[in-house]
Design goal:
With 198 residues, the chain is of the alpha/beta class. It has 7 helices and 6 strands, in the order βααβαβαααβαββ. The protein has one domain: Phosphoglycerate mutase-like (Rossmann fold, 3-Layer(aba) Sandwich), CATH 3.40.50.1240. Strand 5 and strand 6 form a beta hairpin.
Length: 198
C-alpha cells in the first residue's frame, strides 16, 4: 500500500522567460507554458488520479486545468512559492544592480539568508512540509497530483534527500516528479522529468 504524489511545476510564464522573481506575484502562463501543459496532459491522461491540489496562483491553476481536464482542483495557498520580498518582480540583473551584497549572500547560502520583507527560508520549508504531510494523511493509498512551484517542489525534494543544496533540486517548467510514500516514508521515483516536452 502506498500513496503516490505526482509533483508538477507550472508551465512557463513571461516572467520566467525574463528571469524575474515571481514569488507570490500572480502571473499567468504564456503561450509556451500552455503548450507545455498540453504535452504533459497527453503524457498523464492514461493514468488514474484520485485528487488534484494546486497552489492558488494563476500559473499553477492554469497548468492544473490543462493537465487535469475535467477533474476538480483544490486550491491551497500553502502550496505557494516562497515570498521573495524586495526581489519580487525584479530581474536577476536588476537585483544584482540594486542589492548586490544581499543577492550574493542569497545565491551563495539561501538557507542562512533572509531577503528583506520576504519569507524566512525555514518558515517556507515548515509551511511546505506541513501541507504535504496533510495531503498525504488525507489520501492514504491514492495517487495525488500537486501542481505548484519550483521552490515548493525543491524544498520537498531537499528534505527527502537530506540535502542542503537548495538550487540543485529546483525543477524545470512543466516538469514531472514522483514521490511515493510507503509506511510514511517517502521515496523519489522520478525527478524533474521533461521528456514529454521534447
Amino acid at each position: 500500500m502506498s500513496t503516490k504524489l505526482i509533483l508538477i511545476r507550472h508551465g512557463e510564464t513571461d516572467w520566467n522567460l525574463q528571469g524575474r522573481y515571481c514569488g507570490l506575484q500572480d502571473v499567468e502562463l504564456n503561450r509556451k507554458g500552455k503548450r507545455q501543459a498540453s504535452l504533459l496532459y497527453k503524457r498523464l491522461k492514461v493514468g488514474r488520479i484520485h485528487k488534484v491540489y494546486s497552489s492558488d496562483r494563476k500559473r499553477a491553476i492554469q497548468t492544473a486545468k490543462i493537465v487535469f481536464k475535467g477533474l476538480d482542483i483544490e486550491r491551497l495557498s500553502d502550496l505557494r512559492e516562497m515570498h521573495f520580498g524586495i526581489f519580487e518582480g525584479l530581474t536577476y540583473g536588476q537585483i544584482t544592480k540594486g542589492y548586490p551584497q544581499i543577492y550574493k549572500k542569497w545565491l551563495d547560502s539561501p538557507l542562512s539568508s533572509n531577503i528583506p520583507q520576504g519569507e524566512n527560508f525555514y518558515s517556507f520549508r515548515k509551511r511546505i512540509l506541513k501541507v504535504v504531510r496533510k495531503i498525504v494523511s488525507l489520501n492514504y493509498n491514492k495517487t495525488i497530483a500537486i501542481v505548484c512551484h519550483g521552490g515548493t517542489i525543491g524544498i520537498l525534494i531537499n528534505h527527502i534527500l537530506k540535502s542542503r543544496d537548495f538550487w540543485r533540486h529546483i525543477p524545470a517548467s512543466s516538469s514531472l516528479s514522483i514521490v511515493e510514500y510507503k509506511n510514511g516514508k517517502p521515496k523519489i521515483r522520478l525527478l524533474n522529468d521533461i521528456s514529454h516536452l521534447s
